[in-house]
Amino acid sequence: MPVVVNLDVMLARRKVRSKELAEAIGITESNLSLLKSGKVKGVRFATLAAICRYLDCTPGDILDYTPSDDDLRAGGEE
Predict the structure, then answer these.
(1) What are the angstrom distances between the C-alpha of 51 and each of 14, 29, 31, 41, 60?
(2) 18-25 and 29-37 are packed helices; what angle lies between their axes, rounded to 10 degrees?
(3) 3-65 has which CATH code?
(4) What's the pTM?
(5) Cα–Cα distance between 39 and 60 in angstroms, integer?
(6) Domain segments of the chain: what residues?
(7) 27-37 burial, b for 16+ CB within 10 Å, e for fewer?
(8) What is the pLDDT along the chain (78 residues), one digit of tens a residue?
(9) DSSP string spanning the chain?
């Protein structure tokens, strides 16, 4: 997948545990874990905003993009 989630890196930089972040932004630890591992197909902007506010960062600090030819087919459609 061309979009990479670097949330674990930001947590380490800010010395914040996943449990602390999950409680602060109101999501479950399991959902946060899925997000950290990149196993989700999407994230709500409100959740992303809450993460960024708590970690004092921007979405670009958490999400990265690596171009791929597959990007031309939105949602993996053929």
Answers:
(1) 12, 13, 13, 17, 12
(2) 120
(3) 1.10.260.40
(4) 0.83
(5) 18
(6) 3-65
(7) beeeebeebbe
(8) 688 999 999 999 999 999 999 999 999 999 999 999 989 989 999 999 999 999 999 999 999 998 887 777 765 554
(9) --EEE-HHHHHHHHT--HHHHHHHHT--HHHHHHHHHT--S---HHHHHHHHHHHT--HHHHEEE---GGGGSGGG--
